[in-house]
Backbone:
């Protein structure tokens, strides 16, 4: 028996770009905050978690396109792009398909958690604060 799912999302190219910036940007913020681990390893683990996403969110994250807004010269510039993108994506998905909003939140949260696993021991205060900011942006919608 074939299982099909009808997606209810209608995302413009800009909406998809914002979603990708939000998700991959959260991983980039974690890499920048990972003072006790390898930024490369942190980013790799988080990105692998994002590529494992399912549903419409998974399809958007799997699209091969340039991700805008992740070339800030400082963590502050990066956060100025990523944190509002997280909130905007949650609002957009929440209006169109609450299940996909939950899927996006879970996907980003898992990527953040996977990023932390690249660090030996517990995450330090810098990473912990970045997790708080990312979670706050997801919940602000």
Residues:
């Amino acid at each position: 028996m074939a299982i099909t799912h009808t997606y209810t999302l209608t995302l413009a190219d800009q909406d998809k770009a914002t979603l990708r910036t939000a998700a991959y940007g959260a991983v980039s913020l974690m890499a920048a905050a990972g003072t006790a681990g390898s930024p490369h390893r942190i980013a790799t683990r988080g990105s692998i978690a994002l590529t494992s996403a399912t549903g419409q969110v998974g399809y958007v994250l799997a699209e091969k396109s340039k991700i805008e807004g992740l070339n800030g010269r400082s963590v502050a510039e990066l956060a100025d792009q990523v944190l509002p993108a997280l909130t905007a994506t949650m609002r957009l998905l929440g209006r169109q398909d609450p299940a996909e909003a939950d899927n996006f939140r879970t996907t980003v949260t898992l990527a953040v958690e996977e990023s932390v696993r690249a660090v030996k021991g517990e995450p330090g205060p810098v990473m912990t604060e970045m997790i708080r900011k990312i979670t706050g942006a997801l919940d602000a919608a």
Remarks:
- The helical segments are 13-33, 39-51, 55-62, 75-96, 98-117, 125-139.
- The first helix runs from residue 13 to 33.
- The chain has a mean pLDDT of 90.
- Residues 13-139 form one domain.
